[in-house]
Design a protein that fits this description.
The structure is a homodimer of 202-residue chains.
Chain A: H1 14-30, H2 37-44, H3 51-54, H4 58-83, H5 87-95, H6 97-100, H7 102-108, H8 111-122, H9 127-147, H10 154-175, H11 178-197
Helix pairs in contact in A: 1-2, 1-4, 4-9, 5-9, 5-11, 7-10, 8-9, 9-10, 10-11
Chain A binds a DNA duplex (18 and 18 nucleotides) through residues 13, 15, 36-38, 46-54, 56-58.
Chain lengths: 202, 202
DNA sequence: GTCTATAAGCTGATAGAC
DNA sequence: GTCTATCAGCTTATAGAC
């Protein structure tokens, strides 16, 4: 089926990858709307014109960035599953992101939450794609709660954990209060222990 | 001291007020960076040039918008205090914003949280001004918890309530799941009842 | 594959007529 | 006070040389 001569189209392209990596970082640090081709070109070390060999529009770069973040999300989850065999331990890995990534969150917020919010305001067609990254965490967390014996409330519990992380991220970005973050993580850890201890619902 | 002839400088200006009101709405709906003078001018019904009689720069409009939101925040809190005499009832007023304003939050997020986040990404000088609105809620909630006998943890409890509202706002914006919002508000209401019932700490 | 040169449009901002 | 006309600069995007 696949023609073999011109190149399988899956060949790695160093420049394209560099553009996506830099755009990923700048979209996170400065926002999508405020990041121009010039910003990205300067950081990558290429000319503005060279962009259009790899991408036709700015929106296409955004799509590639979202796809890259989606892949990174799956990789992170796979790493948690390889490291920790218990569902509770894995959920804790998620809860503790707000501590592990605190420096970046403090300055630029949660990468998923801020991108989803910005694309919502822009009425951007890639908004569902960004929200889908939240969806991956939601589904995965839900599966962990099901394994803990909370099949009936698994999705609600997953959403509660997601809301926790977003609330902490927004407040840390606004106030940069380290004690607050640690307090909320401890509170959530106790909450998780209670959920684990009561696997049967009324 | 105050000269009386040219006008006390506090005179109401209908055009200026209209600019601020429209900018307030558009900054919320579309974001600050993505809202141009043309957008505002078209919505107000004036020319682009007329702007500079009332404001010298776009940042000055933002400052006026933040000041206006700050005033609206104080007014809202005053209304809660006039309507509900109990500290717990007042805190509940705050908790229930995510239900009362759900339509707008779903589409554009929390006005305070999204503006603070955007200004952080832009490295904008008005970021502290936007965060100060959060600060007003924080201080006011803290005072309510103090009245409930939780003086020592008042600020931590206030921050927990703020984080709740931001977490729910971000997730509602991403998933638009009404049942989730109502569930989280009920959970928070039960939490508040527990806090009220245990006014003495270990 | 990367570059330079260029286009058309929008941006915030200014000057001056009315 | 509001307007029109205008500015320089930046934006995304294209064409074509190398």
């Amino acid at each position: 089926m696949a023609s073999r001569q011109p190149r399988p189209a899956k060949e790695t392209n160093a420049t394209r990858d560099a553009i996506v990596a830099v755009a990923d970082r700048l979209f996170y640090e400065q926002g999508f709307a405020h990041t121009s081709f010039s910003h990205i070109a300067d950081a990558v070390g290429i000319s503005r014109g060279n962009f259009y060999y790899h991408f036709r529009t700015k929106d296409e770069i955004l799509e590639a960035v979202i796809a890259s973040r989606m892949q990174a999300t799956h990789d992170m989850i796979a790493a948690w599953e390889a490291r920790d065999g218990s569902p509770a331990g894995r959920i804790l890995c998620y809860i503790r992101i707000v501590v592990g990534n605190r420096g970046k969150i403090m300055r630029h917020g949660c990468p998923v939450g801020t991108l989803t919010g910005e694309l919502a305001k822009l009425g951007h067609p890639s908004r569902p794609g960004a929200s889908a990254i939240f969806g991956v965490f939601r589904g995965w967390l839900s599966r962990q709660f099901t394994l803990l014996g909370h099949a009936r409330n698994a999705d609600a519990l997953a959403m509660h954990v997601l809301a926790f992380s977003q609330g902490v991220a927004v407040m840390d970005n606004a106030f940069r209060d380290r004690a607050f973050v640690e307090r909320e993580v401890e509170r959530m850890t106790r909450w998780l222990a209670d959920v684990v201890a009561a696997p049967v619902e009324a």
